[in-house]
């Protein structure tokens, strides 16, 4: 076995990349481990590694200038020795569905990070790889000479694609991994005369934020995968050039053919075994609980997650989402995947299971034969229920009593992804707003008109003005779902209060992040809005959250205090 004197690893701040850094640092002959991270300042686990051989370099594989800057730093570190090993490991899984909303930007995000970035990075670092290769003579090939290793996936296989987008929307990811396999093979041919190895590895189904995104706990740990990968990389020879391997250096193409032959001969048995492995083997002694399917918009789904999590904790179970073959289930699934993508820690706290699991349906919050959505009922009576899968009749559960005992954990779970933080910080800079400097207002119109619970123009203006004066905030920032109404509110506030007023034109998750950064006080002008509720949840000053407007509880007699966090208050003008 041989090892590189120097290695550059992208995506090294977490997951498999961080695992690879740790494994290479265990090898004494490795002199330089250059860890590429998009946000080095926030890479706490990476920076905690105390080793003089480790150098952390800022790199964004979507930015050519960032790649060039990283190259310059790497060149200074390795000098005339060149770079022995480049590991294109950074990757993203952005949910995208064939039958879902068309969004070119989402597709390009996967292609840029997973395929185009590695291509440009490999081209940029080629002089350092050539320099390292030139120091060796003869026909020796290996990572101690010069090599490019690309992190791929079995999802890049065309032959093995029998699940389409699956339940987490993998088409963009699969396209990008197929592309990187072709890139690697092509570069392997092009760089053969320079004796630069190029190979692709599938690290396996690994317990990372990405690996757990579908709600299932992945099969192997980061340490298991990274250790096997480094061991396999140390064994690379000329015969491996251009190949696609699993982490143990077994050819993926051979494995695929063997698997397909088995499936063709024993389809029914194989399907049963796969289902057993997927849904039974990994859960060990867990017991599960679900809420009834309920499919309105994002704010409601986040309420369902928070309440469902609280109920699951109360019953010492794990929350699961049943998936049926209908449009309602698909809508719910897409919402929860979006939530998991924006808040990666939430993915560790729920599972997706087929709706066909043998669940016992029991009532919760059913009063006088009617299902409640706002009235609280303690689920503790089911804590000793014997059923492995418990399905509660409760579909919504908007009552803070379901979450109050677990609020710190819920806040921790709703930590933003690195992608949201990056984009959000960019927006904050562009807006020129400082921390907690704005009087934020959420407005809601559109479908709320049916129930006469929309934001009212004059009431919203008066309330926002009162709060701005009370809190001495000099700027207004307006969120909402009706841009024309938002602009009218902003203009009126600006003219009347002589304060700057802006409106949001950003995505839902970007709005959440902005609230967490710029809102010194928050007004929910349509009290019934769950999206407004979540904007307030993320706002910086929880003791300065107010709501106005007519509440909607579908006829249930619920104390208003049970619909909001304890520090929030109804504003009476």
TrEMBL record:
Q: Which UniProt keywords apply?
A: Glycosyltransferase, Membrane, NADP, Oxidoreductase, Transferase, Transmembrane, Transmembrane helix
UniProt-listed GO biological process terms: carbohydrate metabolic process
Keyword Transferase on entry: yes
- A Pfam family of the record is adh_short
For the keyword Iron-sulfur, the answer is no
Q: Which cellular component appears as one GO term in the record?
A: membrane
Which GO molecular-function terms appear in the entry?
galactoside 2-alpha-L-fucosyltransferase activity; oxidoreductase activity
Q: Where are the transmembrane segments?
A: 255-279, 512-536
Please give the name of this protein: Oxidoreductase, short chain dehydrogenase/reductase family protein
Which gene name belongs to this protein?
A: Acey_s0081.g1416
């Amino acid at each position: 076995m041989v090892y590189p004197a120097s290695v550059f690893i992208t995506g090294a701040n977490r997951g498999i990349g961080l695992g690879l850094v740790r494994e290479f640092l265990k090898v004494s002959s490795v002199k330089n481990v250059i860890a590429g991270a998009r946000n080095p300042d926030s890479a706490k686990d990476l920076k905690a590694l105390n080793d003089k051989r480790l150098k952390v370099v800022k790199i964004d594989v979507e930015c050519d200038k960032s790649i060039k800057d990283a190259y310059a730093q790497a060149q200074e570190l390795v000098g005339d020795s060149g770079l022995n090993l480049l590991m294109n490991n950074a990757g993203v899984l952005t949910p995208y569905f064939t039958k879902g909303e068309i969004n070119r930007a989402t597709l390009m995000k996967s292609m840029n990070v997973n395929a185009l970035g590695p291509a440009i990075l490999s081209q940029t670092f080629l002089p350092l790889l050539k320099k390292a290769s030139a120091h060796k003579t003869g026909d020796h090939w290996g990572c101690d000479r010069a090599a490019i290793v690309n992190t791929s996936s079995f999802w890049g296989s065309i032959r093995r694609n029998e699940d389409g987008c699956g339940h987490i929307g993998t088409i963009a990811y699969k396209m990008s991994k197929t592309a990187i396999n072709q890139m690697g093979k092509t570069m392997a041919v092009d760089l053969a005369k320079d004796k630069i190895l190029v190979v692709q590895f599938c690290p396996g189904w690994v317990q990372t934020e990405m690996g757990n995104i579908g709600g299932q706990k992945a099969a192997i740990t980061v340490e298991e995968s990274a250790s096997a990968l480094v061991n396999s990389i140390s064994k690379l020879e000329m015969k491996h050039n251009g190949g696609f391997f699993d982490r143990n250096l077994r050819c993926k193409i051979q494995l695929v053919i063997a698997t397909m032959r088995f499936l063709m001969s024993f389809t029914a048995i194989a399907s049963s075994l796969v289902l057993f492995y997927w849904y039974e083997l990994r859960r060990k002694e867990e017991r599960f609980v679900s809420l009834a399917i309920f499919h309105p918009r994002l704010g409601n789904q986040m309420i369902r997650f928070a309440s469902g999590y609280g109920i699951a904790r109360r019953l010492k179970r794990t929350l699961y989402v049943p998936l049926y073959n209908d449009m309602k289930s698909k809508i719910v699934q897409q919402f929860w995947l979006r939530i998991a993508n924006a808040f990666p820690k939430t993915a560790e706290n729920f599972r997706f299971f087929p709706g066909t699991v043998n669940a016992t349906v029991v009532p919760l919050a059913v009063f006088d034969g009617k299902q409640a959505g706002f009235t609280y009922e303690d689920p503790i009576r089911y804590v000793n229920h014997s059923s492995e899968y418990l399905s509660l009749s409760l579909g919504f559960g908007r009552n803070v009593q379901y979450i109050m005992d677990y609020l710190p954990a819920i806040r921790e779970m709703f930590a933003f992804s690195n992608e949201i933080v990056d984009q959000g910080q960019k927006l904050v800079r562009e807006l020129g707003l400082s921390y907690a400097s704005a009087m934020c207002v959420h407005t809601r119109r559109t479908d709320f008109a049916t129930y006469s619970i929309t934001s009212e123009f004059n009431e919203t203006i008066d309330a926002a003005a009162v709060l701005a004066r009370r809190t001495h905030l000099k700027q207004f920032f307006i969120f909402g779902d009706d841009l024309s109404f938002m602009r009218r509110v902003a203009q009126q506030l600006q003219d009347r209060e002589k304060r700057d007023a802006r409106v949001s034109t950003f995505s839902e998750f970007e709005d959440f992040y902005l609230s967490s950064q710029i809102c010194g006080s928050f007004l929910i002008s349509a009290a019934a809005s769950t999206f407004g509720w979540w904007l307030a949840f993320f706002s910086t000053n929880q003791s300065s959250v107010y709501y106005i407007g007519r509440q909607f509880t579908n006829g249930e007699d619920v104390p208003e205090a049970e619909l909001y966090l304890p520090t929030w208050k109804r504003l009476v003008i």
